[in-house]
Amino acid sequence: MPVLRSGGRAPATAPAAPSPQQARARRPGAAEVGKRFLTLREGSIVVVTVLAILYFSLKTDRFFTTDNFKTLLPYFAPFAILAAGEALLMISGEIDLSIGSVFLFSPFMFYEFSQAGLPLIPCLILALLCASAVGLLNGVLTEVIGVSSFITTLGTLLGVGGLTLIISHAAPVAMPGAEVTSTTVNVTHVINGQTVVLPEKVNHIGTFAKIFGGGIYSELIWALVIVIGVQVLLRMTRWGMHTIAVGGNKLGASEAGIKVRVVVIRNFIMCSAFAGLVGIFEATRASSVTPDTAGASETMFRAVSAAVIGGTLLTGGEGTAIGALIGALFLGVLRDGLTLQGISADYLDFILGIAILLAMVINVYVGRVRKGSGRG
Amino acid sequence: LDPVHEALERLEWEDDRQEETPRSRFRAFSRRAALTGGAAGVAASILAACGGSSKSTTTGTAAASGTPASGVFGGGASKPLKFAFVNHVTTNPFFVPTKYGAEDACKLLGCTYQWTGSENSNVNEMVNATNSAITGGVDGIAVALVDEKAFNSPVDAALKAKIPVVAYNADAKSNARLAYIGQDLFVSGQEMGKRIISLVKNGDVALFIATPGSANIQPRIDGALDSIKKSGGGITPHTVATGAAVPAELSTIDAYVSGHPNTKGLFAVDAGSTQSVAQVMQKHGLRSKGVKGGGYDLTPVTQKGLANDMLDFTIDQQPYLQGFLPVLELYLYKQSGTLSGIADVNTGLKFLDKTTVVPYNSTKSRYEGSSTSAGVAKA
């Protein structure tokens, strides 16, 4: 995404651009770059997110700190992965509501496989296969039988949630491989010029947990890898082109010889597999998982809203994975920032709602440049 | 005036640990002036300390009581303490008295609190909120430990950052929290089981639970089942999950009763299911058929149902205390410089029946969440 990158730094390059005459002749001016940047689907949401970050940085001195960066990660990274999968599917014109349940289902399958005595990695692969199976079921019911994806996945949202309750006997379990061990380390402090050695508790987690969700940056790295992967898939592969074509005009795509069923079913499977993966990440991060199906729809809803805020159309045919990431980041910044500011829960949803509306109004307003841009 | 001099020595030693600035010199001077001013000054400053006022006034004696406090907190202006309550169902009406309790305690002590967490028991969301509170630099955290393991790391991180953490409403054994303020859930369940045995001699009994597995209600049903099992009597318990939202709970219980006409008793372990039991009793006229019922907590519907003899009992766990006491304990812990304030409190196993529920119905009370006017207040 070279355009995005240069566009993202548009304000920074602005003073540098006019000084070398050649560069000015060769490259478009800062205003032009900015304009072109805004014509990207993600352009306006990036602006809105930057505004939100600026606002919170000015409001609380604790926001723009390394500590808060670490705190912010789990607010958006898991949702970015969910939203990337959902965006991929939504671009092909379908929606998956069942990701909330798959998100719960896969860590329990992981647990069951582990109880059966399998090592962690095979457990992970098998759990992801189970998640993918739900995607396959969704895809087949939608594309082969012809039930609308909203109804199909509403069914699997409830069904898989219920299955999770049955498998787990409705009881929370400790995630295998995510055990936290504590060791006591002697730390030397200097107090009043005197050296004092005090024992301090340090928590450790295993390598598996560190890679799959437990490490501080693990979810961020996964999110970046997956989002970039989906973006490349969408923009540079046949699969991606077909996805966009199917979402834009299903009949036309099939008449042009695209195997619509295969494309959509494949996207359903990807979407579910990502949801299963994130489920395992989040369970590993918390080191235990509760079969709380009441929260499943909320998880799903946040992922869908991140994708839509990031510029994916509910009707299909248009959208990006990067946009989904930024959409998730925007929602995460709002939640973290408001909690940091000390907003109580009774007010949080109200303020969150207003903030989203306000941001989306700005988003539409900024995005209007697109219409007058004369691009294409 | 020995204690005064002793105090001065201590404070000056505290000051020596910090760098000397014109401000600290002024502080030391004003303190000496105030304290050596006489016993009256001492008495006044003690009174001021008892009042817990953290507002700084311009009189000499107030300066004397204000400075040691800032010494404890590592200097700086005496900012009001800020506490965070991390809750699993932030918008649930059960916790309205808890919020009032926290609010009243904060007013009394001159602190502030934040009510945060998840709306639907999402543990990851609660962990995120806890981490935000730590990053935000709150002075203390009260958290409902609805998961056995998930809060261990955030609580350790908070304690490491010198932020005290207490648990309220729900507890986890393996957690490093300093204290638990709430009901002993398993024991309360056992007591409920004994009640059930005395009410229903034999036959089928339904036990309703909103969300099985939740650490704040599952132990209750486990306790009840434990008592019933130990009794070895003729009671056959059936556990029924009713769902997290009250309308769903009502329809689930309604459907269960319609499908199982031989049930001798309906008992619930959460607030929503309990009020639904009362409503279903009334709807089907089950009391005239001798069906027994009971449950937990006091919603307005449950209170009325109990007074109208639709239920045999309900168990009050005093949610007001679960908000008031954490603030009090965290405040004392901070003010005493970690020396005091922390204590486990069992907020209750109060069985209410037709007669004892009367005052709950006849008064509007802050302590049960039905009045918005302040409860405990400064005299």
Key phrases:
heterodimer, A: 376 residues, mainly alpha, B: alpha/beta, 6-stranded parallel sheet, 6-stranded mixed sheet
Mean residue pLDDT of chain A:
85
Low-confidence stretches of chain A: 1-25
Overall structural class of chain B, as computed from helix and strand content, comes to alpha/beta
The two chains with the largest interface, and their residue counts, are: A-B, 49 and 48 residues
Please give the number of β-strands of chain B.
12
Helix/strand order of chain B, N-terminal first: HHHHEHEHEHEEHEHEHEHEHEHEEH
Could you tell me the radius of gyration of chain A in angstroms?
A: 23 Å
Q: How much of the polypeptide of chain B forms β-strand, as a percent range?
A: 15-25%
Describe the structure.
The complex is a heterodimer of chains A (376) and B (379). Helices cover 70% and strands 7% of the residues of chain A. Chain A has 376 residues and is mostly helical. In chain A, the strands form two sheets. A two-stranded antiparallel ribbon of chain A has the order 1-4. Chain A starts with a helix and ends with a helix. Chain B is an alpha/beta fold. Helix content of chain B is 47%, strand content 15%. In chain B, α11 links the parallel β8 and β9. In chain B, α5 runs parallel beside α13, α8 crosses α9 and α11 packs across α12. Chain B starts with a helix and ends in a 17-residue tail after the last helix. Classes of the chains: A mainly alpha (376), B alpha/beta (379). The interface between A and B is large, with 49 and 48 residues.
